[in-house]
Amino acid sequence: LRRGATRSDLAGRRVVVSAGGTREAIDPVRFLGNHSSGRQGYALARTAAARGADVTLVAANVSLPDPAGVRLVRVESAVELAEAMETERAGADAVVMSAAVADFRPVTSAASKIKKSGDAPAPIELVENPDILAGLVASRAREHTEQTIVGFAAETDDVIANGRAKLARKGCDLLVVNQVGGGRAFGTEDNQATVLGSDGSAVDIPTGPKEDLADRVWDLVVERLPG
Ligand code: CTP
Ligand code: CA
To answer: Where does CTP bind (predicted)?
Structure first.
Protein backbone atom coordinates (compact mmCIF):
# COMPACT_ATOMS: atom_id res chain seq x y z
CA LEU A 1 0.00 0.00 0.00
CA ARG A 2 1.12 3.49 -0.82
CA ARG A 3 1.69 5.99 1.97
CA GLY A 4 -1.58 7.47 3.15
CA ALA A 5 -3.67 4.97 1.24
CA THR A 6 -5.31 3.54 4.35
CA ARG A 7 -5.61 6.79 6.32
CA SER A 8 -8.66 8.94 6.80
CA ASP A 9 -6.85 11.76 8.61
CA LEU A 10 -8.51 14.38 6.39
CA ALA A 11 -12.05 13.16 7.10
CA GLY A 12 -14.33 16.05 8.01
CA ARG A 13 -11.87 18.55 6.51
CA ARG A 14 -12.47 20.75 3.50
CA VAL A 15 -9.50 21.47 1.24
CA VAL A 16 -9.08 23.57 -1.89
CA VAL A 17 -6.36 22.83 -4.43
CA SER A 18 -5.47 24.84 -7.53
CA ALA A 19 -3.86 23.09 -10.49
CA GLY A 20 -2.60 23.74 -13.99
CA GLY A 21 -1.44 26.97 -15.54
CA THR A 22 -3.28 30.18 -16.33
CA ARG A 23 -3.73 31.55 -19.86
CA GLU A 24 -3.76 35.28 -20.45
CA ALA A 25 -5.62 36.24 -23.62
CA ILE A 26 -3.90 38.28 -26.31
CA ASP A 27 -6.82 37.98 -28.74
CA PRO A 28 -9.64 35.43 -29.23
CA VAL A 29 -7.21 32.72 -30.40
CA ARG A 30 -3.89 33.46 -28.65
CA PHE A 31 -2.65 33.58 -25.09
CA LEU A 32 0.39 33.85 -22.85
CA GLY A 33 0.72 30.61 -20.92
CA ASN A 34 3.08 28.10 -19.34
CA HIS A 35 3.88 24.39 -19.46
CA SER A 36 2.18 23.31 -16.23
CA SER A 37 0.38 20.00 -16.85
CA GLY A 38 -1.74 20.07 -13.69
CA ARG A 39 -0.50 16.60 -12.66
CA GLN A 40 0.83 17.67 -9.25
CA GLY A 41 -2.39 19.50 -8.39
CA TYR A 42 -4.53 16.58 -9.55
CA ALA A 43 -2.39 14.22 -7.44
CA LEU A 44 -2.96 16.52 -4.43
CA ALA A 45 -6.72 16.46 -5.04
CA ARG A 46 -6.85 12.66 -5.48
CA THR A 47 -4.75 11.91 -2.40
CA ALA A 48 -6.75 14.33 -0.22
CA ALA A 49 -9.99 12.69 -1.36
CA ALA A 50 -8.50 9.24 -0.63
CA ARG A 51 -7.73 10.46 2.91
CA GLY A 52 -11.34 11.52 3.44
CA ALA A 53 -11.29 15.24 2.62
CA ASP A 54 -14.06 17.20 0.94
CA VAL A 55 -12.01 18.45 -2.03
CA THR A 56 -12.52 21.37 -4.39
CA LEU A 57 -10.09 21.37 -7.31
CA VAL A 58 -9.74 24.64 -9.20
CA ALA A 59 -8.22 23.69 -12.55
CA ALA A 60 -6.68 26.13 -15.01
CA ASN A 61 -6.45 24.65 -18.51
CA VAL A 62 -5.77 21.05 -17.50
CA SER A 63 -6.42 18.21 -19.96
CA LEU A 64 -6.41 15.26 -17.57
CA PRO A 65 -9.33 12.98 -16.63
CA ASP A 66 -11.59 14.46 -13.92
CA PRO A 67 -10.60 12.93 -10.56
CA ALA A 68 -13.42 10.94 -8.95
CA GLY A 69 -15.08 12.28 -5.84
CA VAL A 70 -13.72 15.80 -6.24
CA ARG A 71 -15.62 19.01 -7.02
CA LEU A 72 -14.03 20.55 -10.10
CA VAL A 73 -14.11 24.28 -10.91
CA ARG A 74 -12.59 25.31 -14.24
CA VAL A 75 -10.88 28.64 -14.86
CA GLU A 76 -8.61 30.07 -17.56
CA SER A 77 -6.93 33.33 -16.52
CA ALA A 78 -5.17 34.46 -13.35
CA VAL A 79 -7.98 36.91 -12.61
CA GLU A 80 -10.55 34.09 -12.90
CA LEU A 81 -8.37 31.86 -10.71
CA ALA A 82 -8.07 34.63 -8.11
CA GLU A 83 -11.87 35.03 -7.98
CA ALA A 84 -12.46 31.28 -7.73
CA MET A 85 -9.87 30.85 -4.96
CA GLU A 86 -11.29 33.76 -2.94
CA THR A 87 -14.74 32.17 -3.15
CA GLU A 88 -13.66 28.61 -2.42
CA ARG A 89 -11.19 29.38 0.38
CA ALA A 90 -13.97 30.51 2.74
CA GLY A 91 -14.35 27.93 5.48
CA ALA A 92 -11.65 25.62 4.09
CA ASP A 93 -9.20 23.95 6.48
CA ALA A 94 -6.38 24.03 3.94
CA VAL A 95 -5.67 25.74 0.63
CA VAL A 96 -2.90 24.60 -1.71
CA MET A 97 -1.77 26.80 -4.60
CA SER A 98 -0.09 24.38 -6.96
CA ALA A 99 -1.23 26.24 -10.09
CA ALA A 100 1.36 28.09 -12.15
CA VAL A 101 0.00 31.63 -12.28
CA ALA A 102 1.12 33.96 -15.08
CA ASP A 103 2.86 36.88 -13.41
CA PHE A 104 1.69 39.29 -16.14
CA ARG A 105 -1.23 39.62 -18.53
CA PRO A 106 -1.72 41.77 -21.63
CA VAL A 107 -3.20 45.15 -20.68
CA THR A 108 -5.92 44.58 -23.27
CA SER A 109 -7.17 41.51 -25.09
CA ALA A 110 -8.04 42.35 -28.70
CA ALA A 111 -11.72 41.70 -29.54
CA SER A 112 -10.75 40.47 -33.01
CA LYS A 113 -7.90 38.26 -34.16
CA ILE A 114 -4.74 40.30 -34.63
CA LYS A 115 -3.69 40.29 -38.31
CA LYS A 116 -0.29 40.73 -39.92
CA SER A 117 -0.12 44.17 -41.47
CA GLY A 118 3.26 44.04 -43.17
CA ASP A 119 4.66 46.56 -40.66
CA ALA A 120 6.66 45.69 -37.56
CA PRO A 121 4.41 43.92 -35.00
CA ALA A 122 2.97 46.04 -32.20
CA PRO A 123 4.48 45.25 -28.77
CA ILE A 124 2.22 43.53 -26.22
CA GLU A 125 1.97 45.75 -23.16
CA LEU A 126 1.74 43.80 -19.90
CA VAL A 127 0.35 44.46 -16.43
CA GLU A 128 1.05 42.44 -13.29
CA ASN A 129 -1.53 39.88 -12.13
CA PRO A 130 -2.79 39.78 -8.53
CA ASP A 131 -0.72 37.64 -6.16
CA ILE A 132 -3.37 35.05 -5.35
CA LEU A 133 -1.40 33.27 -2.63
CA ALA A 134 -0.62 36.51 -0.80
CA GLY A 135 -4.31 37.42 -1.19
CA LEU A 136 -5.35 34.15 0.49
CA VAL A 137 -3.01 34.90 3.40
CA ALA A 138 -4.51 38.41 3.69
CA SER A 139 -8.07 37.01 3.65
CA ARG A 140 -7.21 34.56 6.41
CA ALA A 141 -5.73 37.37 8.52
CA ARG A 142 -8.85 39.51 8.01
CA GLU A 143 -11.06 36.67 9.23
CA HIS A 144 -8.82 35.54 12.10
CA THR A 145 -9.54 31.93 11.06
CA GLU A 146 -7.27 28.93 11.28
CA GLN A 147 -6.40 27.71 7.82
CA THR A 148 -3.24 26.09 6.51
CA ILE A 149 -2.01 27.74 3.32
CA VAL A 150 0.51 26.01 1.06
CA GLY A 151 2.39 27.45 -1.90
CA PHE A 152 4.59 25.89 -4.54
CA ALA A 153 7.73 27.34 -6.07
CA ALA A 154 10.02 26.22 -8.84
CA GLU A 155 13.48 27.64 -8.31
CA THR A 156 16.93 27.50 -9.89
CA ASP A 157 20.35 28.48 -8.47
CA ASP A 158 20.21 28.82 -4.65
CA VAL A 159 16.94 26.90 -4.37
CA ILE A 160 16.55 26.87 -0.57
CA ALA A 161 17.56 30.50 0.00
CA ASN A 162 15.20 31.60 -2.77
CA GLY A 163 12.47 29.43 -1.25
CA ARG A 164 12.95 30.85 2.26
CA ALA A 165 12.73 34.40 0.94
CA LYS A 166 9.60 33.55 -1.05
CA LEU A 167 7.95 31.83 1.94
CA ALA A 168 8.55 34.93 4.07
CA ARG A 169 7.30 37.26 1.32
CA LYS A 170 4.10 35.28 0.72
CA GLY A 171 3.30 34.63 4.39
CA CYS A 172 2.02 31.09 3.81
CA ASP A 173 2.64 28.16 6.20
CA LEU A 174 4.39 25.77 3.83
CA LEU A 175 6.23 26.26 0.55
CA VAL A 176 6.94 23.22 -1.60
CA VAL A 177 10.14 24.08 -3.45
CA ASN A 178 11.07 22.21 -6.62
CA GLN A 179 14.44 22.49 -8.28
CA VAL A 180 13.91 23.08 -11.98
CA GLY A 181 16.12 22.95 -15.02
CA GLY A 182 17.20 19.95 -17.05
CA GLY A 183 13.65 18.79 -17.79
CA ARG A 184 12.61 18.31 -14.17
CA ALA A 185 9.13 18.80 -12.71
CA PHE A 186 7.14 20.31 -15.61
CA GLY A 187 5.20 17.60 -17.39
CA THR A 188 7.18 14.75 -15.85
CA GLU A 189 5.70 11.95 -13.76
CA ASP A 190 8.16 12.21 -10.88
CA ASN A 191 8.82 15.11 -8.59
CA GLN A 192 11.42 15.92 -5.95
CA ALA A 193 11.04 18.76 -3.48
CA THR A 194 11.94 20.38 -0.19
CA VAL A 195 8.99 21.59 1.88
CA LEU A 196 9.88 24.71 3.86
CA GLY A 197 7.79 25.66 6.89
CA SER A 198 7.18 29.11 8.34
CA ASP A 199 8.33 27.53 11.65
CA GLY A 200 11.81 27.17 10.11
CA SER A 201 11.41 23.48 9.25
CA ALA A 202 12.70 21.90 6.03
CA VAL A 203 11.57 18.45 4.94
CA ASP A 204 13.29 16.81 1.96
CA ILE A 205 11.08 14.64 -0.19
CA PRO A 206 13.02 12.26 -2.41
CA THR A 207 12.34 11.82 -6.11
CA GLY A 208 9.20 9.79 -6.60
CA PRO A 209 5.70 9.82 -8.02
CA LYS A 210 3.71 13.07 -7.68
CA GLU A 211 1.20 11.06 -5.60
CA ASP A 212 3.91 10.39 -2.98
CA LEU A 213 4.90 14.05 -2.85
CA ALA A 214 1.22 14.93 -2.50
CA ASP A 215 0.80 12.52 0.42
CA ARG A 216 3.86 13.97 2.16
CA VAL A 217 2.46 17.48 1.74
CA TRP A 218 -0.85 16.37 3.30
CA ASP A 219 1.11 14.77 6.18
CA LEU A 220 2.63 18.19 6.90
CA VAL A 221 -0.75 19.90 6.56
CA VAL A 222 -2.38 17.41 8.94
CA GLU A 223 0.32 18.16 11.56
CA ARG A 224 -0.69 21.83 11.40
CA LEU A 225 -4.47 21.41 11.50
CA PRO A 226 -6.17 22.41 14.75
CA GLY A 227 -7.70 19.47 16.64
N1 CTP B 1 1.24 32.66 -7.13
C2 CTP B 1 0.02 33.28 -6.98
N3 CTP B 1 -0.27 34.39 -7.71
C4 CTP B 1 0.62 34.90 -8.56
C5 CTP B 1 1.88 34.28 -8.72
C6 CTP B 1 2.16 33.16 -7.98
O7 CTP B 1 -0.78 32.80 -6.18
N8 CTP B 1 0.31 35.99 -9.25
C9 CTP B 1 1.53 31.48 -6.30
C10 CTP B 1 1.83 30.21 -7.08
O11 CTP B 1 0.66 29.46 -7.29
C12 CTP B 1 2.77 29.48 -6.14
C13 CTP B 1 3.50 30.61 -5.41
O14 CTP B 1 2.68 31.76 -5.55
O15 CTP B 1 2.09 28.73 -5.18
C16 CTP B 1 4.86 30.90 -5.89
O17 CTP B 1 4.81 31.20 -7.27
P18 CTP B 1 6.08 31.85 -7.94
O19 CTP B 1 5.80 32.10 -9.37
O20 CTP B 1 7.26 31.03 -7.57
O21 CTP B 1 6.15 33.23 -7.11
P22 CTP B 1 6.24 34.72 -7.57
O23 CTP B 1 5.82 35.53 -6.39
O24 CTP B 1 5.48 34.95 -8.83
O25 CTP B 1 7.78 34.95 -7.77
P26 CTP B 1 8.72 34.86 -9.09
O27 CTP B 1 9.08 36.26 -9.40
O28 CTP B 1 9.88 34.02 -8.63
O29 CTP B 1 7.94 34.20 -10.20
CA1 CA C 1 5.81 33.82 -10.79
So the answer is: 103, 113, 130-133, 152, 166, 170
